[in-house]
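Database export, one record per block. Field names are fixed; values are copied verbatim from the stored entry.
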Amino acid sequence: MKRSLILSVVVLVSCGRFSNKEQQEDRQERIVCLSKQYNEIIFALGAQRDLVGVDLSSTYPSAIKKLPTVGYHRALSAEGILSTKPTLIIHDNNVGPEPVMKQLADLKIPMLVFHTKGETIDAAKALVKEMGEYFKKSKEADSLNAMLDRDMKIALDRKETLKDKPSVMIVHFGRANNVYLTMTQNSTSARLVEWAGGEIPLSGDRGMMQLSPEAMAKADPDVLLLTDFGFDQLGSLEKIKELPGVAGTKAAKNNRIFRVEEHDMVYLGPRTGEIVLRLQQLIRQNASAQ
């Protein structure tokens, strides 16, 4: 499959992040990818040349922000997708609404879902391998998987030397109406924290749950991680420490409140080992203050 590098955005749709009128004429396909996990792997493989649109949640790597967005993956519009003139739509079945997907199917636009779910380390490696084979980037896929194995071994070896397991809470999208949206033990974030040597104290059937300030105070985490949107919205550590339910926690008292990128915490991929190593540094930072 011959491909050429996209140097600019083809068209700006209504929800696009950037505008660029230059066009690339020698691509063979026009791919819209509606999965942030897939999109990161596509870029890591160096297979992004035929991408003409992505979903709004795809924010890594930074180069992806040069591409038009076609809406949030669960709230898509057919018009936004069709404006990119796609010859292929790639998604992970976590897309909607259903009438939009049916409309696209009725238009006979080819769609591709990779077989592997990528929800464990081995599955993430299998997904990278499957995508590498599809994009004719098998050598690159093998290199990415070798890097993942290497980083995870370092992280897990370090974990074995740790004497304690700090309680870590992750607040996603900051705070709304005095309710915190937090990650539970049934989330990808919990696995990342576990591999890093910490533990998320909240159980739940879903990956996220709403938590009141009173419940936050009662949980009293050793470490509090805020995803980028919430952290940046509040603007400073001092403002975060003043939030209801947060101020009295061990995390606030010992300045163990840190910023993490949302896209690092919600799926597994080639950088997972690197992310776990970074989490190890964060959840151990300022530990002597306890």
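Remark 1: The mean pLDDT is 89.
Remark 2: The chain has two domains: 31-138, 168-289.
End of record.
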